[in-house]
Prior knowledge:
The complex is a heterodimer.
Chain A: H1 10-19, E1 37-40, E2 43-47, E3 53-57, E4 61-65, E5 67-69, E6 71-75, E7 81-83, E8 90-98, E9 104-111, E10 122-128, E11 152-153, E12 158-166, E13 176-185, E14 195-196, E15 206-208, E16 214-223, E17 226-237, E18 250-261, E19 264-273, E20 278-280, E21 286-287, E22 290-291, E23 301-303, E24 307-316, E25 320-329
Parallel strand pairs in A: 5-15, 7-16
Antiparallel strand pairs in A: 1-4, 2-3, 6-8, 8-12, 9-11, 9-13, 10-12, 13-16, 14-15, 17-18, 18-25, 19-24, 20-25, 21-22, 21-25, 23-24
Chain B: H1 2-16, H2 18-24, E1 28-41, E2 47-52, E3 56-57, E4 62-71, E5 78-85, E6 90-95, E7 101-103, E8 117-119, E9 125-127, E10 135-140, E11 149-158
Antiparallel strand pairs in B: 1-2, 1-4, 4-11, 5-10, 6-11, 7-10, 8-9
Amino acid sequence: MGWRIRRLPKAAVLGALLASASFASPAFAAGTPAGTDITNVATASYETPGGSTIDVDSNPVVIKVDELLDVVVDNTDPGDVATQPGDTGEVLTFQVTNSGNGNEAFTLDADVAVTGDDFDPTLVQIVLDTNDNGVYDPGVDDVYVAGTNDPALDPDESITVFVIVDTPTGPTDGDRAEVSLSAVAVTGSGAPGTSFNGQGDGGGDAVVGTTGADDDDSGFLAIQAAILDLIKSATVLDPFGGSTAVPGSVITYQIVANVTGTGSLTNLVVSDPVPADTAYVPASIVFEGTGQTDATDTDEGSFDGTQISVDMGTVTSGESRTITFQVTIQ
Amino acid sequence: MIKAIFKGLIVATAILGGSAVAAQAAPLQLDSDIFVERQKRSEDGSVSVILAEPKTVVPGDSLVFVVKYKNVGAEAASDFAVTNPMPKAVRYAGSADGLELASVDGGKTYGFLSALKVKNADGTDRAASYADVTHIKWNLKQILAPGQGGKLVFRGVVK
């Protein structure tokens, strides 16, 4: 089989290369670390007419890998952060990732006055998740001060950032507020390809990547005012099978707790004192169709001698819970 | 500038190892270059791709490797082969002539990439891809007469 050397004219070679440029879009994360040298050496071997084999190395070509400046900001809240008018210290959670290939510090900034939303919260502070547990720990996690503790991240490293805001008293149920966090590479940012001579990690240049070395993402606060309506009704059964209220008649009270609006009510406990001149019928509390003991124990209902009490836990708006209990008229 | 420095190094090497090379005659000159594709935006907004000689690159850059060879000796050379190990930070992306053999095992064995297999973690085989290539090689099985030369061109992407 004959191998032919094709001595293509330069223009033809370039043409062929450019035509295939489309497959060269790479999928890489941070990529080769900044400062890495790419060294290429080709080796040729051949036989002399005398029959000996000779190896020849080419010159080494060395290219340094520059620092690529890239950053990604993501809001990691599972959904809107529920708040109430006047609530303080609401926490929005973001993740800032160095998607470049060198160690880089980032300047953070939070914007609470984004237009197009329903209200503007007040920015309290930006906090870095110093102990890296993903949860805001007041007094433990460091408060961020621009220019002082700009987080420096290795390639592909992330930091969790909390934006702490207060909700004003004005907004009403369903109103939402956008809170945006931006991160900008300290070395520089701008149009992709912008180069900062000699400022790259590892000694090369720093070059702005596809993210512009500047990214932001938004989280949302939502006023979730759940409204509780308690509807109480009574049915009387007298000793004679009728419904007159006489001594000995049993009154069955029904309390329906309706939660409306948005959001949910947590730790909802409904209590009702037993009326004067009546006696509580022991173990008569029924919650959502299930009989309850009177002791304060693992079930939801209890009777403490003067009032019944049912711990309903968290009730989401649009849902209702029903309690019944009985007393005897004395 | 970097290239100029290394040319100087090569000359120095040649002098040091001079006796052996001189005895074999038919010296072959091998010259390696790397270019990078840069997008150039003209004033009318159209984008063209130019090849630049870079000192530095960034991950994702498309590189063009050019290896020039020439028989600068007085005797013909036969069984001529050129091998280029892929630099660690470069993912191979094909050659201009398509005649190269590839190795996916560190240069132990070579074959056309389309025929090469790579073992999966579970022991099964899969077809090798550009990302698996560790070395490429041209077996130019013809006589290279004095004064003859040529050029091998291939592409890579900075990982």
